[in-house]
Design brief:
This protein is 89% helix and 0% strand. The protein is built from 3 helices and no strands.
Length: 55
């Protein structure tokens, strides 16, 4: 019952680390595709923030 007494934060951090590991594995296997998608996403975010800055 020691697990029940512990706060949920360590469990959440462990799950987040596992998700990050999976994502890094996917990036390694198809790096070009992921990098292109990330660049497009960053470009879209920059455009949106620029448009919001004009308002």
């Amino acid at each position: 019952m020691a697990l029940v007494r512990q706060p949920r934060v360590p469990w959440f951090v462990g799950a987040l680390t596992a998700v990050r590991a999976v994502i890094s594995e996917v990036e390694r296997s198809r790096r070009g595709y992921v990098n292109r998608w990330m660049m497009e996403a960053e470009y879209m975010v920059e455009n949106i923030s620029r448009e919001l800055g004009r308002l």
